[in-house]
Predict the 3D structure of the following.
Amino acid sequence: MAIFYDTHAHLDYDDYKADFAEVLTRAQVAGITKIISIATDLDSSRRALALTEQHPMIYAAVGWHPSNAHEAPADIRPALRELARHPKAVAIGECGLDYYRLPSANGGSAEDDARYKQKQAEIFQQQLEVAADLNLNCVIHQRSSFDDLFAQIQPFAGKTRGVFHCFGESVERLQKILDLGWLVSYTGIVTFKNGQNIRDAVAATPLDKFMLETDCPYLAPIPYRGKRCEPAYVKEISETVAQVKLCSPDELSDATCRTAHEFFPKLR
Ligand SMILES: [Zn+2]
């Protein structure tokens, strides 16, 4: 059986409280042997690290999601540095910029939007700094913010690398990311009927420049679309990606697992 990793899962969410053991068992049965639990704030980072200590197959990314940035303290660096030194903290994230729902969409002012963006940029900057300091890579969340985000990461090229998770942008933007030496990862959207733009991006991504992920509990692939997603469904994602790449499941397994080990050196 071809082995795959789920490089982006939110296992610390309450969605898995009732059947956590079964979720892990189903993942193993499906050939998903390693899972990176991605944090969204410092408490979530602590929960993710606790999971890594209880389950050999789980690793963690520690960080602060841009959509929660307005709730972050002024300086998350000291606490984040501490957490990131954990032997199973394989990356910083998820971090980045998200302009999808700005305060002005809920009656806020242009100044509210500017403040919101500014705080996201500060928290993102702090995470890039910690990643560079500790020689870790980053899991990048980007939504409706590509140009600002790209400008902010450029000074860090050569000091850290990022994977643009849930990649859904144009082939031109893909090329900018790859030219920087950074990576992308693909979710269950690749299986959606209306996901042709994602399949086009997959087709344009060299086999050794991307990883697979669920972003569970979100984005369950066909035939589970609309239900709670879980790491086992990387199998369905891998089947569609292998078809698009015209490669065998084993070739896809070799390439994506090798890329994950190279990108997350603390993954054992
Ligand atoms: Zn996520």
